[in-house]
Amino acid sequence: MHTTIEKVLEDISFSASEYKGERFQITKEYVSQRLQNLVDNVDATRFIL
Predict the structure, then answer these.
(1) Would 43 be classed as within a structural domain?
(2) Dist. CA 24–CA 19, nearest whole Å
(3) pLDDT digit of tens for each residue in the chain (49 aa)?
(4) For residues 6 and 38, is the Cβ–Cβ distance under 8 A?
(5) 42 within domain boundaries
């Protein structure tokens, strides 16, 4: 679970100082886009559990 959340938030966390005061809405589409490579990699799915 930690790996999944980290993957979803990594871009936002990395560039947070550039977006000071702004709000982010995490949508289903955003999560799907961010996790697509992780989901496509069958070997990595064992680390998600």
Answers:
(1) yes
(2) 9
(3) 777 888 888 888 898 889 888 888 999 999 988 888 777 766 665 666 5
(4) no
(5) yes
